[in-house]
Amino acid sequence: MAHQTTPEPSIAGGILGNDAFEITRHFTAPPERVFDAWVGDAWAQWLPFPHAVVERLDVHTHVGGHYHLTMRMPNGQQMTASGVYREVQRPTRLVFTWLTSLSEHASLVSVTLQPSGGGTRMVLRHEGLPIPELRESHRRGWLGGFERLEPLLLTPQAAP
Questions:
Q1: CA Rg value for the chain
Q2: How far apart, in whole angstroms, are the C-alpha atoms of residue 134 and residue 45?
């Protein structure tokens, strides 16, 4: 495999087939920091829709472990997201099922992190979304979350 030397865009990606999409994003933080933002309390700071309030977040990050997120939308509607971790390889890969109160069936999210240009190249693949409107809604949701994640990653880390 050839080494990529050209700079990559901040965000790239699109719809793959009939039930999946992929987003590639570069963050200035190292892979460990980006990975930790996916599996800890920081998830509640960047994942929810703008102006939504996280009411509950339980994360048990190990293969077979569960997560559950409950948020209250600005219109008062409650939305949940939950799933099971299928693969956890800190700091390079995370795979989990994704079931929201907006869908009837669980989908699958894969996140791959690689060191790149002093930061991290993240590739998110979300599959199992056969309804085009639902797929596009999830794609927009992830893109918005990544916009909120970038400044969070730039804040100084708390001491362990």
A1: 15
A2: 23
Euclidean distance between CA atoms 88 and 96, whole angstroms: 9
The sign of the CA dihedral 18, 145, 30, 107 is negative
Residues with Cβ < 8 Å from 32, sequence gap 6 or more? 90, 91
CA distance 134 to 141: 10
Place of tokens 């060191």: 115
Whole-Å CA distances, 137 to 103, 110, 120, 132, 141? 11, 17, 25, 8, 6
What is the side-by-side strand order in the sheet with 11-16? 11-16, 20-27, 119-127, 107-116, 93-100, 78-89, 66-72, 53-59
Phi, psi dihedrals of residue 142, rounded to the nearest 5°: -65, -45
Query: How many other C-beta atoms are found inside a 10 Å radius of the C-beta of residue 94?
Result: 21
User: Domains plus CATH for the chain?
Assistant: 11-50+86-154 (3.30.530.20)
Peptide bond into 156 cis (omega under 30): no
The model's confidence at residue 4, banded by pLDDT at 50, 70 and 90, is very low
pTM, full prediction: 0.87
pLDDT at 123 over 50: yes
**Whole-number pLDDT of residue 70:** 96
